Amino acid sequence: MKKSKETEEEITWEDFKAYLPKHDFDKKQMDFFKNTLDYILHRKNTNKVSCFCGRCGIGKSTMIHTLMHCCIGDYLFEKRHTPFGMVVITDSIKRLEELSNTTQDIKEAEKYWGEYFEDFGFSIHFRDFEKNVIVLKSDEPFKEQLIKQHYRPIVLLSTQRYFMLSASTREELFSFTYEGRTLKRNIVIFDECPKFSETVTIDSDNLTRIESALYKGLSNEVEDKSFVIREYKVFKDRLLNQMDEKEKLLKDSNVTIYWKDEHYSNITPNDDLFFKVIYDNVESLSNQYNQFLKDILCLKKIAKEGAVFNCIKKRTGENYERSFMLLIDNREYFYLGEDKKFFVFDATADIDPRYDLDYVELIDGERYNKPLDLLITNVNVSTSKNAICRSSKNAKASVEAIRKYLLKKQEEGFGDHKDILIVVYSSLVKRFQKDFKFRGYFGNLKGFNDFKELYRMAHIGMNRFPNLAYFFIYCGCHMEVYRSLAEMSEKDSLEFFDELVKNHNEEYKEAIISVMLRSMLTDFEQNIFRLAIRNYWNTEKVHIWTFYNSDDAI
């Protein structure tokens, strides 16, 4: 019987199951797939970004990849053939390649369907899939890729790339052409936490790279090239002079202060002309410096609104730094209330403080959980950067004691599992290189499944940042707090940040501690789920050793 047009144009659960890998999925996983599909297809409240909090290993990548197959129009099983448009955004280029690749799909389908593989049209579909998906890459001319993506229903790009696009370029992502018709890509999926807000730092290196890009990226045919370069240099020198002046406020101590230029509110005497030249030549300028547009727009905000000046004169194991820091609210990137619906897949969204936003809804995934056989053993020892990353005898002795302790645990093993994944500060990874095959460092594990066959981990220290970083996370969800900084006098802001950094600010002390603990817990949970525990069907014990001083005051 011939289907109605409405039926032909609808993705169904039967469509999804047809392309789902033929694995032995648990019933709870199947429930997750079915309920999530229904939510994506039928929840149209674009005033909210919907975040799925299903545990690591539930199958979010499988969910996204299978949905991509459903979106590609074909005649498989005589179903609909008009494609659906979708944008997929993720942190890792490796993940983008996995989502857009069909090699493993073909192997599994051929094995499962056997002689029916060709009869059911799978070979045609897989060829069509690769023709209808495009990954926007940084190593290819972006203008050419933008033209190609107009003819592909599904476009994939990195999180970093998405939040660097101008508003006009972003708009191009949300439509494509099919058989002469313009169709919408109105489903947008983030695989990992998006940048709801960003803390951007502008230092002397950024300023110099922008100037170099102007020299090289503006051809001599650009009529106002000399004006743009001359006036930018005046602005750059003014900022550098301010850095010198504010750094001297406290001779031997770090300085954090909110600075705002009292005499100027523009980059140049004619910002309209300046930015016209920028936008007319943005591709060649970005080819010289890929962060050019983002940085120049940040400088525009600094000129108009000011920013936090931060100078680190002394910090254990790290270098002298000084920069302007500003918080960017990326709310506009989610097109709230418009015709595009944004979804996020993030297992730790329910504990991550970055999701404390009025336009975010969390979709609980607890009903899909299974009991975990997880043992966490804490070794009560000081493992802060100050305690173990220094070049002192005590620091080296502490690391050596931890190494010997874990070496003994590795030799003992349990069952067939002897290897231990070592997770530690990046500066200490080499100290464990000789004795431990598997190593990683804080901030470099999330999103990768390279250790899913391991059952043991040593988590040496916690991924803790300065209080200022947690304050900015808090401000990302309470922009009115950040904006209030501009109303302070320099003296008041210097005092405010001095108390904040030392955790003596009573107004925000509790909030910062909460953000810090939730951030550390988020990182810790993500790291744990790099192990075999992420395998949904795993029933064997997973053992984690944590090394930190539980008696330390926060």
Would you spell out the secondary-structure blueprint of this structure?
Blueprint: H1 5-8, H2 13-19, H3 27-42, E1 49-52, H4 60-71, E2 86-90, H5 93-100, H6 103-113, H7 116-119, H8 122-131, E3 133-135, H9 142-149, E4 154-158, H10 159-162, H11 167-172, E5 175-178, E6 181-184, E7 187-191, E8 197-202, H12 204-217, H13 225-247, E9 255-259, H14 271-280, H15 282-288, H16 292-305, E10 307-312, E11 321-329, E12 341-345, E13 360-363, E14 374-380, H17 385-388, H18 393-412, E15 421-424, E16 438-441, E17 456-460, H19 467-477, H20 479-484, H21 490-501, H22 509-528, E18 542-548
Parallel strand pairs: 1-12, 1-13, 2-4, 2-7, 3-4, 7-12, 14-18, 15-16, 15-17, 17-18
Antiparallel strand pairs: 5-6, 8-11, 9-10, 10-11
State mean pLDDT (0 to 100 scale).
88
Number of strands: 18
Approximately how much helix is present in the residues? Answer: 40-55%
Strand order of the largest sheet: 3-4-2-7-12-1-13
Largest sheet: 7 strands, parallel
Uncertain spans: 1-8
Structural class: alpha/beta
